[in-house]
Amino acid sequence: MKRHLLSAGDLGKDDALLILDTAEELAQVADRSIKKLPTLRGRTVVNLFFEDSTRTRISFEAAAKRLSADVINFSAKGSSVSKGESLKDTALTLEAMGADGVVVRHNASGAPHRLANWVHGSVVNAGDGTHEHPTQALLDAFSMRRRLGNLEGRRVSIVGDILHSRVARSNVLLLHTLGAEVTVVAPPTLMPVAVDAWPCEVSYDLDAVIPKSDVVMMLRVQRERMNAAYFPTVREYSRRYGLNGDRMGRMPEDSIVMHPGPMNRGIEIAAEVADSQRSTIVEQVANGVTVRMAVLYLLLGGSESALGGAVPVPATASAAVSMERDA
Amino acid sequence: MVNAAPTPAQPSAAPGDGRHGGHDGGHKAVLEASDIRRALTRIAHEILERTKGGGDVVLVGVQTRGVTLARRLAERIGEVEGTSVPWGSLDVTMYRDDLRLKPARALGRTELPAGGIDGRVVVLVDDVLFSGRTVRAALDALSDLGRPRAVQLAILVDRGHRELPIRADYVGKNLPTSIRENVKVMLAEVDGHDAVLLGPAAASGPRHGGGVRTEVK
């Protein structure tokens, strides 16, 4: 039984499919006139955000509210954290308030793991530093499954700033578990040193990868994390690693373009691509609420978490361990 | 854990699946396939009679075996009256009052016919009526989906021991049982053959029996 969702690598195939199947059933709630289920009535979910985020926080808030949970939003700005309170003291405060679930976003990799040892509730990692963002990977997998069906054997290319991207890491782990073939594409300076240990292929040439990709996932150029010169100019990056209409034209039929948002239009993705039929970018946002509802329901809905009930899959577990080392 | 809850490995196994599993030892058939067929035919006639031709009826089966029964009833009504009655499925997992007693369960599908249920006469269909808690959850779920003109309840087996003020409008068979007994409904579409079995509560966790009253229907 897994009480927390800290890493996409913690999820076995059965768990991942349970979350995606649950989300599939919950998706129809969004189409009803009453978009609410009574399932988490009386449970408290705390959104603990130490880093700026709009869409993830709102998405978690909407998910918890649609399940009738009470939601407390806590952001580091204007809180006692800015007065120097430690993560542990913040955690103990939440504990005293009786939080059943804690959704945490932190700029330090591993903060949710620490937090999980201090609180009794379930901790959901909503992004920690450059480490992981498991619910983003789940919603990406969900979006792919809705467009393409089964992910077994599908070829997914993740393009851009792999080095700083928690989205890339979580996606590689989860998609590998689900049987997809993942290729990460980036300039050598934006590739993590230990990428060889990841369960994926590595390429430095976007044009070679494009024609054989069922999914092209573009990552944001994270200028706030780039305090060194990773590429000469934005224009050069855009020419070699940006997805423009010309490159999209060389993608296979029925293939899709994804982006976790927020986008830098004109840098990693051209406006005509972002607004095209292939783009799932708007769907991803809607699917985010649904998938997070599924995660909160499975973690908090019953007497104990419904995840990790089956025998863990050793292959993904060891992959997760090796990734944690280079985090 | 008393109930054999569906494992995450089988998300298709909707809530309550496994309740009819376990041993067949000591179970005797109280309804055979032909009895079930006759009971459903009678219920179909009763629905038509009570609703004056079934013009605005929507059959809604409660996952999982209620859905099978709803489909069969719709077919039966079609044969009798020559009209097609819309039918759908309802998963009440998120509305159950015993959610907190077990790990969260996989969800079944809720699918209503295109016309919805607003202003219609909804006939809820389920296999066994026991404590009435499933029906209560189903009523709550329905009210989130629309506003039916009326809701009626059709049940294959009423085994008594109600814990809520709920009764069925159409009953296939009234089956007096002991609280310690276990009622299993087997349907060809799910279990390979039709039968209603009555037997002592098995240790493997019958849903319709045993002393755990809070998690039964």
From TrEMBL, chain A:
Coiled coil: none annotated. The gene is pyrB. Residues 3-145 form the Aspartate/ornithine carbamoyltransferase carbamoyl-P binding domain. The keyword Transferase applies. GO terms for molecular function: aspartate carbamoyltransferase activity. Pathway: Pyrimidine metabolism; UMP biosynthesis via de novo pathway; (S)-dihydroorotate from bicarbonate: step 2/3. It catalyses: carbamoyl phosphate + L-aspartate = N-carbamoyl-L-aspartate + phosphate + H(+). Belongs to the aspartate/ornithine carbamoyltransferase superfamily. ATCase family. This is Aspartate carbamoyltransferase. It is an enzyme of class 2 (transferase). It comes from Actinomadura alba.
